[in-house]
Amino acid sequence: MRSSASVTKIHSFAERGGIVVAFGPQPWNWLPEQHWEERPTNFWWWLEKDASSGLVLQKTTHPLFNGYLSLADCTWHQHGVFWPPENAEVLIATEDGGAVLYIDTVSTPGTWIITTLDPDFHFGSYFMPATERFFEGFFPYLAYGKLS
Question: Is 139 helix (H, G, I), strand (E, B) or coil?
Fold first, then answer.
């Protein structure tokens, strides 16, 4: 794990039962028990004939998808995938099973919501409306939803 004051504070927070959310490609060791796989990013996949994002909902009945988010709200592009720890709950994956969004309640007493999606980067760029819809659903889910 990286040694830094921030990483120590984040892990301490999770060890006390806190909720940690990590957006975007995270090829660093500070996330517990995950393995990052870099993949080429196709920023313009949606312009291709018969376009498919390659994303699949793994847990369609999860509370996140019960009035908060749809797969379309979580679809723009991805920079790679995670191979999360055993027993983590993968909510969105690529067609080959790589995790794009997962919830880890097994690595620490806290909850880690980890995604390769980077809505924080694209929000406000006005050409990826899915990122605004993502935040409009995700933040209420964090505040009021059942996390697992």
Answer: helix
Question: Encoding tokens for residue 54?
Answer: 């390659």
Contacts from 94-101 at CB under 8 Å and sequence distance 24+?
94/54, 94/55, 94/56, 95/54, 95/55, 95/56, 98/37, 98/39, 100/55, 100/74, 101/74
Say if residue 124 is exposed, middle or buried (CB neighbours under 10 Å; 0-12, 13-18, 19+).
exposed
99-104 and 111-115 strand pairing: antiparallel
Sequence-distant (≥ 6) Cβ neighbours of residue 39 within 8 angstroms:
78, 79, 80, 81, 98
pLDDT at 148: 66
What is the tens place of the pLDDT at every residue in 56-87?
999 999 999 999 999 999 988 778 899 999 99
How far, in Å, CA of 124 to CA of 127, rounded? 8
pLDDT at 93: 96
Q: Tell me the three state secondary structure of residue 136.
A: helix
Listed as ranges, residues in the chain with pLDDT below 50 are 1
SS3 15: helix
